[in-house]
Automatic annotation (TrEMBL):
Residues 3-117 form the Gfo/Idh/MocA-like oxidoreductase N-terminal domain. This is 1,5-anhydro-D-fructose reductase. Signal peptide: none annotated. It comes from Stieleria marina. GO terms for molecular function: 1,5-anhydro-D-fructose reductase (1,5-anhydro-D-mannitol-forming) activity; nucleotide binding. Keywords: Oxidoreductase. The keyword Oxidoreductase applies. It comes from the Bacteria. The lineage of its organism: Bacteria, Pseudomonadati, Planctomycetota, Planctomycetia, Pirellulales. InterPro entries: Gfo/Idh/MocA-like_OxRdtase_N (IPR000683), GFO_IDH_MocA-like_dom (IPR055170), NAD(P)-bd_dom_sf (IPR036291). It is an enzyme of class 1 (oxidoreductase).
Amino acid sequence: MSVRFGIIGTGRITRRLVADLQSTDNVSVSAIASRTDERARWYADQYGIANAVTGYQELIDRDDVDAVYISLPPSLHKEWSIAAANASKHILCEKPLALTTDEATQIDQAAKANQVRWLDATAWLHHGRTQAIASAIADGRLGKVGHISAAVSFFQPFQSGDHRLDASLGGGCLLDLAWYAGGLIRFAAKGLPTKVFASAIDDSEIGSGVPQRVTAMLWFDDNVTATLSCGYDTATRKWFEIAGSAASVVCDDFTRPWADKPARCWIHAASGDVQQLAYEGNQEQEMILRLIGDSPLDSLQCQAIDTHRILDALAESIRLGEPVSV
Ligand SMILES: NC(=O)c1ccc[n+]([C@@H]2O[C@H](COP(=O)([O-])OP(=O)(O)OC[C@H]3O[C@@H](n4cnc5c(N)ncnc54)[C@H](OP(=O)(O)O)[C@@H]3O)[C@@H](O)[C@H]2O)c1
């Protein structure tokens, strides 16, 4: 039987995920909710969704909704994820999952208490090449992993009123972009750092008290280190390097491959040989299928909560201006 999704929010990313939901096997989109009647109707017509709903709780309470896709500013993720869980609806929540580890854990607990499944919409984790990279790390092709670096950015300008510039809505590149870079580092290091040191630049000309650029170092057990760079003041970067004693993995489009180009990722050997990693698939559809499937989601949920632990530590280091233990 088809899993019927309800969409909460009508932001920029909504259009893309609605198309992915509508094109995934055994999934349909039955309703979309906005705070305003006009917006709900306009988006329902645009996306070909049967029901336009005014109010998020009204959507959650519908009998024709089995799961929700939450596409709201980060400050609203916890409230509406927990509301969905309490109504026994499965949850696909946009990244970052919440504002803090504590909030993320509350979502997890509400979902478990109500026996619903949840994922954050961090689609790169579901791409076929992510599994290929995990295999390259695990099977020793890289030798011993020593250093990981990740960089995610895009250049302003923002539209006026963009939630990314509003601290009260969870704005700033730490939650928005270090979510990806910190998550990649956690994935490659297979765990949490022991210590981090981060600094942030807040350009008051464009900002409103939220980080515009974040630079960080992370230290892990076994002499593994990592560096992270993200910001709204450099052109689009979505890349990483996982450097091992025998070879390195290099990827320059990991958050989402460019629409008009095949996904890219290479193993660079010490000899100078370069091998393209083989992979295929649509990462968003894989993510949706995993959410509605019946395989355990624990490791993905742990990845999300650990990513919040890293971001919490980076925020604390920025606040104190010194390294902090994790
Ligand atoms: N996975 C990805 O690749 C990706 C890419 C971009 C963004 N995102 C994430 O997706 C989420 C939404 O991002 P977006 O860029 O689509 O956001 P957006 O364009 O700002 O839209 C957010 C929506 O949230 C609703 N909303 C409710 N209360 C709001 C408030 N106080 N201020 C502003 N909007 C409010 C609005 O819908 P109504 O007015 O209709 O209720 C609005 O359209 C964020 O968490 C972001 O990090 C993910």
